[in-house]
Amino acid sequence: MKDKIKVELRNLTKTFVTNKNDQVRAVDNVNLTINPGEFVCLLGPSGCGKTTTLRMLAGFEIPTSGEIFIGDRNVANLTPDKRDTAMVFQNYALFPHLNVYDNIAYGLKLQKLPKAEIRERVDKILKLMKMEDFALRVPSEMSGGQQQRVSLARALIMESGVLLFDEPLSNLDAKLRIHMRDEIRKIQKQVGISSIYVTHDQEEAMGLSDKIVIMRDGTIQQVGSPREIYQKPVNEFVAQFIGRANILEGTIVADNKDRVSLDIHGVVYETERTTGHGAGDRVKFMIRPESFLIGGKDFTAPVTKSVFMGSHHEYEVELFGKIFEISENNPMRKVTIDVGENLSFSMDPNSIHILEQ
Amino acid sequence: MNNSRKLKLQNELKILANLRNDPALLGVILFTLVLVTFFIIIPLYNILMESFTTDRGISLKNYRDVILMYGNMRILLNTILLGLVTSSISVVVGFIFAYVTTYMKIRFKRMFDFIAILPIISPPFVVALSAILLFGRVGLITRGLLGIKDAEIYGFHGLVLVQSLSFFPIAYMMLVALLQRIDPSVEEASRDLGASRFKVFTSVTLPLMVPGLANAFLLVFIQSIADFANPVVIGGNFTTVAVKIYQEGIGNYQFGTATALAMVLLSISISIFVLQKYYVSKKSYVTVTGKVSRQRDLISGRNVTLPATAVLLFFTFFVIMMYILIPIGSFVKLWGINYTPTLEHYRYILKPKLFKPVLTTTTLAALATPVSGILAMLIAFLIVRKKFFGKSFIEFTTIMALAIPGTIIGLGYVISYNKTYSLLGATIIPPITGTAFIIIMAFIIRSLPVGIRSGITSLQQIDPSIEEAANVLGASSRKVFTSVTIPMIKNAFLNGLIFTFARSMTLVSTVIFLISARYKLLTTTIMAQIDVGKMGVASAYCTVLILIVSVAMLIIKIFVKNISTE
């Protein structure tokens, strides 16, 4: 097994010129470091630049400016075949005219390795993927999940420095998606290859990553662990994009080095300091639906939506001219409140997160 | 705006710089640019220049002659009239065939597809020749069955018959492809809303097909006005522009008139092609409805399918008869007079001197086939998958070449390459007319666009990420092309090879300008035989030609089937 490799994007920019001669900055001055062996997800809505970034990493797009370091080599202007990367594609991209064995062996054959070694390595990877019985099938004879396993095997066998994933699970059904997600994570940990994974599915990003990169309009909004991204989003966009979030306003009435007191419509909560704001500042903050304490006495509001979801119960209440999303976990044997009735609740002070803007 | 230009240029330069790392790709691009420039652009440019040149310098005299000389104007109108009538008939017949085979549960479907192959593997004048054998002065039907002594097949009506029979398969194949892409659920929706089958046809199917019908009409129109062989063989006193260009250029050495006529014909063809490609094709509704969700319930009522089958079979037998008549005609002594079986025509053409055109044509076609077949796939690959400087130029000219009448290409070659190009006293390009080289180039240029088009169509259906996967696994552009692209578009490659060979063997219009004493071609030899009335000999040659093409088709098929992935 090769050494784990570090990947660095420096001031990476890609500008497309449309047919109407308009310029579109698909990727705008992106700086990012992927540590050796790390699993990083690029997450964002469509058109945020995550796929373009990945395609520049693979070599399918030439950056307008900036550098891409894989290990200590700047590969920004190299063709894909000259880079130490392997890729798993959204639609599997298996060679339709080759069987599973030849699909997986394709890259090794290009390296002109001895036949015996190729056979040994292909057999090993087939075993790792539990696909031994499929070696002689052609892609059209397999299900989507099986095809994606072959696609993963074909990339893994190259033992390249970086593994790139372009929304590899989006064509699979929900159950298989979760299964494959766990499998990818397990195998990645096992072989320890630095991986970059593009997705628009936040659950997938949460389930896979060491580090999530949230992108929007070609720029990086936030880089952090799944926990950081969810609990401490830097701005409203990140807060709204990951999970569900209520964005509200309050006024800071007192602050010290670590903590601030926030007045929310007459109720004062003390919470952790996350920004440079001080007393007297009007700030936006985020609170997740599950961070309300139902039955608390601080607020009372009429319910406008009440839906039982099994694992939790979803409410919407109207307060201060805004709709709040509130969810009650584990609704088993709890009294539910119907539309039109009043719901009383408080906020968990430690779950209040003040936003930068 | 300005900044965008700069950025675009910067992008182009980057792509160009990247090409340096890819010499194979760069080589193909340069080769294609040279090929297109020397064998399409320069000949057309020289025609344009020549058309303005007269004894007294640059003037519009040649065009004035085209417009004012009564003969020329009538020829022009003849050509357009012929195009309109032939296209209308071809589209109607083609649509009936397409509708019946796609919407009805009938037998013999394969046979209907077979008649679409016939015009490809046989020379363009075969139907004309049969028409003469059937309906001419000593025709089997006119004289033999009906006893008409002075039947006249030569002229406008004969030409319309022959062209319609030759070209309706084009419309048929195109319309079948379109009809198959109509989602049956659209028609079911109409049924569900209370429409009768007939109403579904008039209110849904037909309106959906309007752009497709227009498309087919225009494509046949281009073929019809460019046709050279049929008007020569069966046109009689009815002359078309394509024929007139040849007569003026090669017969009278009036290159001024010939080139001016060529420019007029070319502008008509190109305008219609542009209209078809960039306007009518874009109007297609069929693509809007998207993928076909499920199979269509075929009309199976016998009261409908039986008459429909009968009509189609009648037509099909008629078409097949037109082709079968030729081999039959080659085995009888003197058509119309003496139907005694004989091999004398074959003994005649097997004499070494007379058999030489067969060998020459086959050799040259065999040389052109792999070049054109591979090049077509490469160019299609470049156009669909790659970004590079000059791409839109290559794309436009190679696709447009489909619409350039063969006579014009031939005329352009004669004007451009009948002289020595020298620089500082040294010969750069010697005269190449009359050489095998120019004939091979003509074969390539005339078949390349069709190969490119079929390559483009099949590549567009293949997800580019499959090739990207090979690339990222370490395959260079060349390796991607040979190990992944070609195996995936094997069928288009096969069709390209077959088409090139068949087209080269049967080409008349372009090469009639280029043949020499040394390189006599089969098609032109046959036409000369028809001209002097030796129908038996002509038929024997035709039969040999069709045989060679059929055998070659089989060989190519076997060869391509065995393309391994290694």
Give the number of DSSP strands of chain B. Answer: 6
Query: How far is the first residue's CA from the last residue's CA of chain B?
Result: 49 Å
Number of strands of chain A: 19
Largest protein interface, residues of each chain: A-B, 40 and 34 residues
Q: What would the average pLDDT of chain A be, to the nearest integer?
A: 91
The third-level CATH topology of the largest domain in chain B is: MetI-like fold
Helix content of chain B: over 70%
| CATH structural architecture of the largest domain in chain B | Orthogonal Bundle
Topology order of chain A in helix (H) and strand (E) letters: EEEHEEEHHHEHEHEEHHEEEEEEEEE
Number of domains of chain B: 2
**Number of alpha- plus pi-helical segments of chain A:** 8
The secondary-structure class of chain A comes to alpha+beta
Coarse shape of chain B: globular
Radius of gyration of chain A: 24 Å
Looking at the overall shape, the CATH architecture of the largest domain in chain A is 3-Layer(aba) Sandwich
CATH H level of the largest domain in chain B: which superfamily?
MetI-like
Task: Walk across the major sheet of chain B and give the strand order.
Answer: 1-2
Low-pLDDT regions of chain A: none
Structural class of chain B: mainly alpha
Structural write-up:
The complex is a heterodimer of chains A (357) and B (566). With 357 residues, chain A is an alpha+beta fold. Helix content of chain A is 24%, strand content 37%. Chain A has helices spanning 50-58, 100-110, 115-128, 144-156, 174-191, 202-208, 226-231, 236-241, and strands at 7-17, 23-34, 39-43, 65-70, 73-74, 85-88, 162-166, 194-199, 211-216, 219-224, 246-255, 259-264, 267-272, 282-287, 292-308, 312-319, 322-329, 342-347, 353-354. Chain A has a six-stranded mixed β-sheet, with helices on both faces. A five-stranded antiparallel β-sheet of chain A has the order 13-12-11-14-19. A four-stranded antiparallel β-sheet of chain A has the order 2-1-4-5, covered by helices on one side. In chain A, a hairpin with a 3-residue loop joins strand 15 and strand 16 (312-319). In chain A, helix 2 (100-110) packs across helix 3 (115-128) and helix 2 packs parallel to helix 4. The mean pLDDT of chain A is 91. Chain B is mainly alpha-helical. Chain B folds into two domains: 14-46 and 362-517, MetI-like fold, CATH 1.10.3720.10; 60-342, MetI-like (MetI-like fold), CATH 1.10.3720. A two-stranded antiparallel ribbon of chain B has the order 1-2. Chain B has a two-stranded antiparallel ribbon with strand order 3-4. The longest helix of chain B is centred in the first third of the chain and has 34 residues, at 70-103. The relative contact order of chain B is 0.12. At the A-B interface, strand 6, helix 2 and helix 4 of A face helix 1, helix 21 and helix 22 of B.
